[in-house]
Write a structure and sequence with these properties.
The chain is an alpha/beta fold. The protein folds into three domains: 83 residues, Roll (Ubiquitin-like (UB roll)), CATH 3.10.20.30; 93 residues, Translation factors (Elongation Factor Tu (Ef-tu), domain 3, Beta Barrel), CATH 2.40.30.10; 122 residues, Nucleotide-binding domain of ferredoxin-NADP reductase (FNR) module (Rossmann fold). The chain has six helices and 19 strands. The two termini are 30 Å apart. Bound molecules: flavin-adenine dinucleotide and FE2/S2 (inorganic) cluster. Flavin-adenine dinucleotide binds next to strand 11, strand 12 and helix 3.
Length: 329
Protein backbone atom coordinates (compact mmCIF):
# COMPACT_ATOMS: atom_id res chain seq x y z
CA UNK A 1 0.00 0.00 0.00
CA UNK A 2 1.34 3.44 -0.96
CA UNK A 3 0.60 6.95 0.28
CA UNK A 4 -0.74 9.60 -2.11
CA UNK A 5 -0.35 13.17 -0.87
CA UNK A 6 -2.28 16.10 -2.39
CA UNK A 7 -1.17 19.74 -2.60
CA UNK A 8 -3.39 20.67 0.36
CA UNK A 9 -1.68 18.04 2.56
CA UNK A 10 -4.52 15.50 2.44
CA UNK A 11 -3.28 11.92 2.21
CA UNK A 12 -4.91 8.67 1.11
CA UNK A 13 -3.77 5.11 0.53
CA UNK A 14 -3.58 3.44 -2.87
CA UNK A 15 -2.31 -0.03 -3.74
CA UNK A 16 -0.47 -0.85 -6.93
CA UNK A 17 -3.60 -2.47 -8.44
CA UNK A 18 -5.83 0.61 -8.12
CA UNK A 19 -5.70 3.85 -10.08
CA UNK A 20 -5.26 7.10 -8.16
CA UNK A 21 -8.73 8.43 -9.02
CA UNK A 22 -10.52 5.29 -7.81
CA UNK A 23 -8.44 5.20 -4.61
CA UNK A 24 -9.19 8.87 -3.87
CA UNK A 25 -12.90 8.16 -4.23
CA UNK A 26 -12.68 5.16 -1.92
CA UNK A 27 -11.07 7.50 0.62
CA UNK A 28 -13.93 10.00 0.22
CA UNK A 29 -11.84 12.57 -1.69
CA UNK A 30 -13.05 13.71 -5.12
CA UNK A 31 -10.52 14.72 -7.78
CA UNK A 32 -11.46 16.44 -11.05
CA UNK A 33 -12.51 13.86 -13.67
CA UNK A 34 -14.95 13.01 -16.44
CA UNK A 35 -14.70 10.01 -18.83
CA UNK A 36 -12.88 7.60 -16.41
CA UNK A 37 -11.39 6.06 -19.54
CA UNK A 38 -8.04 7.82 -20.23
CA UNK A 39 -9.48 9.89 -23.10
CA UNK A 40 -10.70 13.30 -21.98
CA UNK A 41 -7.72 14.78 -20.01
CA UNK A 42 -9.97 16.19 -17.24
CA UNK A 43 -8.05 14.23 -14.64
CA UNK A 44 -4.58 15.34 -15.82
CA UNK A 45 -2.29 15.89 -12.84
CA UNK A 46 1.42 16.47 -12.28
CA UNK A 47 3.31 13.96 -10.17
CA UNK A 48 5.73 16.00 -8.03
CA UNK A 49 7.42 13.08 -6.28
CA UNK A 50 7.34 9.30 -6.69
CA UNK A 51 6.52 6.98 -9.56
CA UNK A 52 3.44 5.59 -11.28
CA UNK A 53 2.67 3.18 -14.11
CA UNK A 54 -0.22 3.34 -16.58
CA UNK A 55 -3.08 0.87 -16.34
CA UNK A 56 -3.75 1.02 -20.13
CA UNK A 57 -1.80 2.61 -22.95
CA UNK A 58 -2.90 6.22 -23.30
CA UNK A 59 -2.74 8.51 -26.33
CA UNK A 60 -3.90 11.89 -25.08
CA UNK A 61 -0.93 13.39 -23.22
CA UNK A 62 1.81 14.99 -25.32
CA UNK A 63 5.44 13.89 -25.08
CA UNK A 64 6.23 17.18 -23.32
CA UNK A 65 3.47 16.68 -20.76
CA UNK A 66 4.72 13.17 -20.02
CA UNK A 67 8.30 14.46 -19.73
CA UNK A 68 7.07 17.14 -17.30
CA UNK A 69 5.53 14.46 -15.05
CA UNK A 70 1.87 14.73 -16.02
CA UNK A 71 -0.33 11.62 -15.79
CA UNK A 72 -4.04 10.83 -15.98
CA UNK A 73 -5.22 9.98 -12.48
CA UNK A 74 -7.91 7.65 -13.89
CA UNK A 75 -5.15 5.59 -15.50
CA UNK A 76 -2.09 5.86 -13.24
CA UNK A 77 -1.27 3.41 -10.45
CA UNK A 78 1.44 4.20 -7.90
CA UNK A 79 4.55 2.07 -7.51
CA UNK A 80 5.92 4.22 -4.66
CA UNK A 81 4.59 6.88 -2.32
CA UNK A 82 3.65 9.89 -4.46
CA UNK A 83 2.93 13.62 -4.17
CA UNK A 84 0.48 15.24 -6.60
CA UNK A 85 0.18 18.87 -7.63
CA UNK A 86 -3.60 18.92 -7.19
CA UNK A 87 -6.20 19.50 -4.49
CA UNK A 88 -9.41 17.57 -4.01
CA UNK A 89 -12.74 19.31 -4.64
CA UNK A 90 -13.30 19.89 -0.91
CA UNK A 91 -16.69 19.61 0.70
CA UNK A 92 -18.85 19.60 -2.45
CA UNK A 93 -21.87 17.42 -1.76
CA UNK A 94 -21.15 14.54 -4.18
CA UNK A 95 -23.61 11.68 -4.24
CA UNK A 96 -22.31 8.16 -4.32
CA UNK A 97 -22.56 6.39 -7.65
CA UNK A 98 -24.94 3.40 -7.74
CA UNK A 99 -26.53 1.17 -10.36
CA UNK A 100 -30.31 1.27 -10.62
CA UNK A 101 -33.07 0.25 -13.03
CA UNK A 102 -34.78 2.83 -15.27
CA UNK A 103 -37.56 2.61 -17.85
CA UNK A 104 -37.98 4.62 -21.04
CA UNK A 105 -40.74 7.17 -20.48
CA UNK A 106 -40.33 9.26 -23.63
CA UNK A 107 -38.23 8.69 -26.74
CA UNK A 108 -38.54 11.11 -29.64
CA UNK A 109 -36.49 12.19 -32.60
CA UNK A 110 -35.77 15.92 -32.49
CA UNK A 111 -33.35 16.22 -35.37
CA UNK A 112 -31.98 14.00 -38.11
CA UNK A 113 -29.54 12.39 -35.73
CA UNK A 114 -30.63 13.51 -32.24
CA UNK A 115 -33.01 11.83 -29.82
CA UNK A 116 -34.62 13.21 -26.71
CA UNK A 117 -34.92 10.47 -24.12
CA UNK A 118 -36.64 10.61 -20.75
CA UNK A 119 -36.09 7.83 -18.24
CA UNK A 120 -38.15 7.22 -15.14
CA UNK A 121 -36.67 5.72 -12.01
CA UNK A 122 -38.39 3.49 -9.48
CA UNK A 123 -40.54 5.58 -7.10
CA UNK A 124 -38.45 4.35 -4.15
CA UNK A 125 -35.15 5.40 -5.75
CA UNK A 126 -32.98 7.88 -3.90
CA UNK A 127 -30.96 8.86 -6.98
CA UNK A 128 -29.41 12.30 -6.50
CA UNK A 129 -27.02 14.23 -8.69
CA UNK A 130 -25.49 17.65 -9.26
CA UNK A 131 -26.74 19.51 -12.35
CA UNK A 132 -24.09 18.91 -15.05
CA UNK A 133 -23.19 15.34 -14.06
CA UNK A 134 -23.58 12.32 -16.33
CA UNK A 135 -24.53 8.66 -16.01
CA UNK A 136 -23.68 5.47 -17.82
CA UNK A 137 -26.70 3.95 -19.51
CA UNK A 138 -26.45 0.17 -19.65
CA UNK A 139 -28.37 -2.02 -22.10
CA UNK A 140 -27.35 -5.69 -21.85
CA UNK A 141 -23.58 -5.62 -22.08
CA UNK A 142 -23.35 -2.19 -23.76
CA UNK A 143 -22.51 0.74 -21.47
CA UNK A 144 -22.28 4.33 -22.73
CA UNK A 145 -22.03 7.75 -21.05
CA UNK A 146 -24.75 10.39 -21.38
CA UNK A 147 -25.16 13.70 -19.57
CA UNK A 148 -28.32 14.49 -17.66
CA UNK A 149 -30.04 17.49 -19.27
CA UNK A 150 -32.20 18.60 -16.34
CA UNK A 151 -32.03 19.50 -12.67
CA UNK A 152 -33.37 16.94 -10.16
CA UNK A 153 -37.16 16.81 -10.54
CA UNK A 154 -39.85 15.82 -8.06
CA UNK A 155 -41.05 13.05 -10.40
CA UNK A 156 -37.42 11.79 -10.59
CA UNK A 157 -37.47 11.69 -14.38
CA UNK A 158 -34.22 12.41 -16.18
CA UNK A 159 -33.73 13.74 -19.66
CA UNK A 160 -30.99 13.12 -22.21
CA UNK A 161 -30.05 14.26 -25.70
CA UNK A 162 -28.50 11.43 -27.65
CA UNK A 163 -26.55 11.75 -30.87
CA UNK A 164 -26.49 8.99 -33.44
CA UNK A 165 -23.08 7.55 -34.37
CA UNK A 166 -22.82 5.40 -37.48
CA UNK A 167 -22.21 1.79 -36.53
CA UNK A 168 -22.60 2.79 -32.87
CA UNK A 169 -23.95 -0.07 -30.77
CA UNK A 170 -25.98 2.10 -28.41
CA UNK A 171 -26.99 4.36 -31.32
CA UNK A 172 -28.35 1.31 -33.10
CA UNK A 173 -30.39 0.39 -30.03
CA UNK A 174 -31.75 3.90 -29.37
CA UNK A 175 -32.44 4.84 -33.00
CA UNK A 176 -33.82 1.53 -34.32
CA UNK A 177 -35.03 -0.65 -31.47
CA UNK A 178 -35.79 1.25 -28.27
CA UNK A 179 -39.42 1.68 -27.24
CA UNK A 180 -41.46 3.07 -24.37
CA UNK A 181 -41.14 1.02 -21.14
CA UNK A 182 -37.90 -0.73 -22.17
CA UNK A 183 -35.90 -1.56 -19.08
CA UNK A 184 -32.35 -0.17 -18.84
CA UNK A 185 -29.84 0.28 -16.06
CA UNK A 186 -28.16 3.50 -14.97
CA UNK A 187 -24.81 3.89 -13.28
CA UNK A 188 -24.16 7.23 -11.67
CA UNK A 189 -24.03 10.03 -10.98
CA UNK A 190 -20.55 10.47 -12.45
CA UNK A 191 -18.13 13.27 -13.32
CA UNK A 192 -17.22 16.62 -11.86
CA UNK A 193 -18.83 18.95 -14.41
CA UNK A 194 -20.99 21.14 -12.18
CA UNK A 195 -21.19 24.86 -11.44
CA UNK A 196 -18.84 26.15 -8.72
CA UNK A 197 -20.04 29.30 -6.99
CA UNK A 198 -17.45 32.08 -7.16
CA UNK A 199 -18.43 35.60 -6.12
CA UNK A 200 -15.45 37.29 -7.81
CA UNK A 201 -16.42 36.07 -11.28
CA UNK A 202 -18.13 38.62 -13.54
CA UNK A 203 -18.70 36.55 -16.70
CA UNK A 204 -19.89 32.95 -16.71
CA UNK A 205 -19.36 31.49 -20.16
CA UNK A 206 -20.77 28.25 -21.54
CA UNK A 207 -19.39 26.77 -24.75
CA UNK A 208 -21.32 23.81 -26.12
CA UNK A 209 -21.31 21.86 -29.33
CA UNK A 210 -24.11 19.48 -30.38
CA UNK A 211 -25.50 17.38 -27.55
CA UNK A 212 -22.90 19.07 -25.30
CA UNK A 213 -25.78 21.44 -24.57
CA UNK A 214 -27.28 18.77 -22.22
CA UNK A 215 -25.30 19.42 -19.01
CA UNK A 216 -25.24 23.16 -19.77
CA UNK A 217 -29.05 23.15 -19.89
CA UNK A 218 -29.08 21.42 -16.50
CA UNK A 219 -26.78 24.07 -15.00
CA UNK A 220 -28.84 26.90 -16.53
CA UNK A 221 -31.97 25.34 -15.00
CA UNK A 222 -30.11 25.40 -11.69
CA UNK A 223 -29.38 29.12 -12.23
CA UNK A 224 -33.09 29.69 -12.87
CA UNK A 225 -33.79 28.47 -9.34
CA UNK A 226 -31.66 31.23 -7.78
CA UNK A 227 -31.51 34.02 -10.39
CA UNK A 228 -30.75 36.78 -7.88
CA UNK A 229 -27.33 35.32 -7.09
CA UNK A 230 -26.43 35.98 -10.72
CA UNK A 231 -27.78 39.53 -11.05
CA UNK A 232 -24.33 41.13 -11.19
CA UNK A 233 -22.93 38.53 -13.62
CA UNK A 234 -23.17 38.09 -17.37
CA UNK A 235 -24.11 34.62 -18.49
CA UNK A 236 -23.04 33.76 -22.01
CA UNK A 237 -24.04 30.68 -23.96
CA UNK A 238 -22.37 29.91 -27.29
CA UNK A 239 -23.90 26.79 -28.81
CA UNK A 240 -22.36 25.46 -31.98
CA UNK A 241 -23.53 23.00 -34.59
CA UNK A 242 -22.85 22.38 -38.24
CA UNK A 243 -26.33 23.19 -39.53
CA UNK A 244 -29.41 24.99 -38.19
CA UNK A 245 -31.05 21.67 -37.28
CA UNK A 246 -28.19 21.02 -34.81
CA UNK A 247 -29.47 23.85 -32.59
CA UNK A 248 -32.37 21.67 -31.61
CA UNK A 249 -34.15 23.88 -29.06
CA UNK A 250 -34.29 27.52 -28.10
CA UNK A 251 -32.60 27.96 -24.71
CA UNK A 252 -34.85 30.36 -22.80
CA UNK A 253 -34.05 31.03 -19.18
CA UNK A 254 -35.39 33.62 -16.80
CA UNK A 255 -31.98 35.20 -16.18
CA UNK A 256 -31.27 38.92 -16.24
CA UNK A 257 -28.02 39.10 -18.19
CA UNK A 258 -28.26 35.97 -20.32
CA UNK A 259 -26.88 36.20 -23.84
CA UNK A 260 -27.41 33.24 -26.17
CA UNK A 261 -25.46 33.01 -29.43
CA UNK A 262 -26.01 30.07 -31.77
CA UNK A 263 -23.05 29.45 -34.09
CA UNK A 264 -23.02 27.38 -37.29
CA UNK A 265 -19.80 26.02 -38.76
CA UNK A 266 -21.06 25.04 -42.24
CA UNK A 267 -22.09 27.44 -44.99
CA UNK A 268 -25.79 28.14 -44.92
CA UNK A 269 -27.07 30.97 -47.07
CA UNK A 270 -30.26 31.55 -45.06
CA UNK A 271 -28.42 31.85 -41.78
CA UNK A 272 -28.12 35.41 -40.51
CA UNK A 273 -26.42 34.47 -37.24
CA UNK A 274 -22.77 33.80 -36.32
CA UNK A 275 -20.72 31.49 -38.52
CA UNK A 276 -17.56 29.63 -37.49
CA UNK A 277 -16.52 28.03 -34.22
CA UNK A 278 -17.88 28.89 -30.79
CA UNK A 279 -14.46 29.67 -29.29
CA UNK A 280 -13.62 32.14 -32.08
CA UNK A 281 -16.96 33.90 -31.76
CA UNK A 282 -16.47 34.11 -27.99
CA UNK A 283 -13.11 35.84 -28.48
CA UNK A 284 -14.79 38.59 -30.50
CA UNK A 285 -16.84 39.71 -27.47
CA UNK A 286 -15.56 42.36 -25.12
CA UNK A 287 -15.01 40.15 -22.11
CA UNK A 288 -12.33 40.54 -19.47
CA UNK A 289 -11.28 36.89 -19.27
CA UNK A 290 -9.31 37.49 -16.07
CA UNK A 291 -12.63 37.64 -14.20
CA UNK A 292 -14.40 34.99 -16.23
CA UNK A 293 -15.04 31.29 -15.89
CA UNK A 294 -15.65 28.93 -18.81
CA UNK A 295 -17.61 25.67 -18.87
CA UNK A 296 -17.05 23.86 -22.16
CA UNK A 297 -18.87 20.72 -23.20
CA UNK A 298 -19.13 18.54 -26.29
CA UNK A 299 -16.50 18.06 -28.96
CA UNK A 300 -13.01 17.29 -27.72
CA UNK A 301 -11.46 19.41 -30.49
CA UNK A 302 -13.48 22.44 -29.46
CA UNK A 303 -12.46 21.95 -25.82
CA UNK A 304 -8.75 21.59 -26.60
CA UNK A 305 -8.74 24.57 -28.94
CA UNK A 306 -10.86 26.79 -26.65
CA UNK A 307 -8.66 26.10 -23.64
CA UNK A 308 -5.45 27.10 -25.44
CA UNK A 309 -7.03 30.21 -27.01
CA UNK A 310 -8.65 31.45 -23.83
CA UNK A 311 -5.63 30.93 -21.60
CA UNK A 312 -3.64 32.99 -24.14
CA UNK A 313 -6.31 35.66 -23.62
CA UNK A 314 -5.87 35.84 -19.82
CA UNK A 315 -8.33 33.19 -18.66
CA UNK A 316 -6.94 31.50 -15.54
CA UNK A 317 -6.29 27.82 -16.25
CA UNK A 318 -8.22 26.86 -13.10
CA UNK A 319 -11.27 28.72 -14.43
CA UNK A 320 -11.72 26.39 -17.40
CA UNK A 321 -13.92 23.36 -16.75
CA UNK A 322 -14.80 20.83 -19.41
CA UNK A 323 -16.68 17.66 -20.18
CA UNK A 324 -15.45 16.14 -23.43
CA UNK A 325 -17.99 13.85 -25.10
CA UNK A 326 -15.38 11.32 -26.13
CA UNK A 327 -16.28 7.88 -27.39
CA UNK A 328 -17.07 5.65 -24.41
CA UNK A 329 -15.72 2.37 -25.74
C1 LIG B 1 -18.81 12.22 -19.82
C2 LIG B 1 -19.49 11.95 -21.14
C3 LIG B 1 -20.77 12.42 -21.36
C4 LIG B 1 -21.40 12.19 -22.59
N1 LIG B 1 -22.66 12.67 -22.78
C5 LIG B 1 -23.25 12.49 -23.99
C6 LIG B 1 -24.56 13.01 -24.24
O1 LIG B 1 -25.22 13.63 -23.36
N2 LIG B 1 -25.10 12.83 -25.47
C7 LIG B 1 -24.42 12.17 -26.46
O2 LIG B 1 -24.95 12.05 -27.58
N3 LIG B 1 -23.18 11.65 -26.25
C8 LIG B 1 -22.60 11.80 -25.04
N4 LIG B 1 -21.35 11.28 -24.82
C9 LIG B 1 -20.69 10.53 -25.91
C10 LIG B 1 -21.18 9.08 -25.95
O3 LIG B 1 -20.97 8.43 -24.70
C11 LIG B 1 -20.38 8.35 -27.03
O4 LIG B 1 -20.52 9.04 -28.23
C12 LIG B 1 -20.80 6.90 -27.20
O5 LIG B 1 -19.65 6.15 -27.53
C13 LIG B 1 -21.80 6.62 -28.31
O6 LIG B 1 -22.09 5.25 -28.24
P1 LIG B 1 -22.48 4.35 -29.49
O7 LIG B 1 -22.63 2.97 -28.93
O8 LIG B 1 -23.62 4.96 -30.21
O9 LIG B 1 -21.22 4.41 -30.43
P2 LIG B 1 -19.90 3.48 -30.26
O10 LIG B 1 -20.25 2.03 -30.49
O11 LIG B 1 -19.28 3.80 -28.95
O12 LIG B 1 -18.98 4.02 -31.42
C14 LIG B 1 -19.29 3.84 -32.83
C15 LIG B 1 -18.29 4.60 -33.66
O13 LIG B 1 -18.45 6.00 -33.47
C16 LIG B 1 -17.29 6.59 -32.92
N5 LIG B 1 -17.73 7.50 -31.84
C17 LIG B 1 -18.58 7.19 -30.83
N6 LIG B 1 -18.75 8.25 -30.04
C18 LIG B 1 -18.00 9.23 -30.53
C19 LIG B 1 -17.77 10.55 -30.14
N7 LIG B 1 -18.40 11.05 -29.05
N8 LIG B 1 -16.95 11.31 -30.87
C20 LIG B 1 -16.34 10.82 -31.96
N9 LIG B 1 -16.52 9.54 -32.41
C21 LIG B 1 -17.34 8.76 -31.70
C22 LIG B 1 -16.50 5.43 -32.33
O14 LIG B 1 -15.12 5.71 -32.27
C23 LIG B 1 -16.85 4.31 -33.26
O15 LIG B 1 -16.07 4.39 -34.44
C24 LIG B 1 -20.72 11.48 -23.60
C25 LIG B 1 -19.43 10.98 -23.37
C26 LIG B 1 -18.83 11.22 -22.16
C27 LIG B 1 -17.44 10.67 -21.92
S1 LIG C 1 -8.92 11.04 -18.96
FE1 LIG C 1 -9.20 10.55 -16.88
S2 LIG C 1 -11.24 11.07 -16.51
FE2 LIG C 1 -11.04 11.34 -18.66
Amino acid sequence: MFEVQLKNGKVFSCDSETNILAASEQAGLILEHSCLNARCRSCKVKVLEGEVVNEQEEFVLSKDEIKDGFVLSCNAKPISNIKLDIEDLGDVNFHKSTVLPAKIDVIETIGADILRLILRLPPSSKFKFLPGQYVNIIKGDIKRSYSIANIPRKDKKIEFYIRKHNRGLMSDYFFSKAKINDLLRLEGPLGTFFYRKNDSIKDIIFLATGTGIAPVKAILEEFNEDPEYLNDKNIWLFWGGRYQKDIFFNPEFNLKNFIFTPVLSRENEDWQGEKGYVQDILLRQEIDFENAVVYACGSNNMILSAKILLIKNNLKENNFYSDAFVSSN
